[in-house]
């Protein structure tokens, strides 16, 4: 499993109606029937999956995420994260936030996870399953609980237990028993998500949001316990500070966000190198940022990771798209 522990998908969103209106040109395409992407006329990048503007939410989910659910209920941790500039489709891909949009990864995970668990219970009366959800935000290297409505200043601490599991001390975990319950918890958290106005996009997200599903399957008959987690991560925009012409406090925010993304990139690269060389002893720099400390037990080791790199097709963003494609192709 080690050589395929990090998989990378690229998704190119369609031009938005206002981009069509302003005659934006398409500068990036999927090479037909391949997992490769061509930027301009001569830059080719290879991935595990490549999705063009007509790809459905189902296609993205089924090829990249569904396989992780199977290993989740077998006891393996997994992480899915969306990387890309603001406006590239990260939040759309992870979970449709508008009623009229097709549901994204989170919606489909919610449906299928409870079906899988029901299946497990059907096999034996003595099997008990639980799903607990936590939802946090990382903003300027500070953790915030998105499910704790009243105490937004509450301190959360990242610890590691004796088995090497990451524990977030003080986080609220909500038990859910259906997809609907899970999605309504998510909506409560989304209402609290930090958004700041930037020159580039009013609702640009400058924080990382991490939804974690803690799954346990207890079999009383043979007293076995499977316990694992799936982290679904909507990363902050990958754009550089200079690009959005921000000044003052927002520039500082950008530099913090880049620390996290940089650290994540280094961890992913170290893991994929380890996979290629089969050198399990290599140093993985988890400790460099909170995001990598948090995801430590869900990235690498026996955990499986999918990175979805989201890009805009517009020639206006060609420089940032190049950055994202380079970052993503180095992660494999
Ligand atoms: P991000 O979270 O990366 O900032 P969003 O997910 O908010 O970006 O996407 C920006 C806009 O593009 C939204 O209006 C969204 O509905 C639209 N969009 C993104 N991806 C797609 C897609 N694959 N198909 C149709 N619309 C999309
Ligand atoms: Mg977003």
Supply the key terms.
332 residues, alpha/beta, Kinesin, 9-stranded mixed sheet, 32% helix, 26% strand, globular, binds adenosine-5'-diphosphate, binds magnesium ion
* CATH level 1 name: Alpha Beta
Q: How many separate structural domains? A: 1
CATH topology: Kinesin
Ions and ligands = adenosine-5'-diphosphate, magnesium ion
Rg of Cα set: 20 Å
**Helical percentage:** 25-40%
Number of helices: 8
N-to-C terminal Cα separation, in Å?
Answer: 14 Å
DSSP E strands, number: 14
Residue ranges: pLDDT <50 for 5 or more in a row? 196-204, 241-246
The CATH homology group name: Kinesin motor domain
| SSE series | EHEEEEHEHHEEEEEHEEHHEH
Overall description:
By secondary structure, this protein is of the alpha/beta class. The chain has one domain: 3-Layer(aba) Sandwich (Kinesin). 32% of the residues lie in helices and 26% in strands. It is built from 8 helices and 14 strands. Strands 1, 5, 6, 7, 8, 11, 12, 13 and 14 form a 9-stranded mixed β-sheet that branches. Strands 2-3-4 form a 3-stranded antiparallel β-sheet, covered by helices on one side. Helix 2 runs parallel beside helix 4 (105-123) and helix 4 (105-123) packs antiparallel against helix 5 (179-192). The longest helix is centred in the last third of the chain and has 29 residues, at 249-277. It is globular, with a radius of gyration of 20 Å. The two termini are 14 Å apart. Mean pLDDT is 86; it is low at 196-204 and 241-246. The structure holds adenosine-5'-diphosphate and magnesium ion (MG). Adenosine-5'-diphosphate binds at residues 13-14, 16, 84, 86-92, 205, 310. Magnesium ion (MG) is lined by residues 90-91, 205, 234.
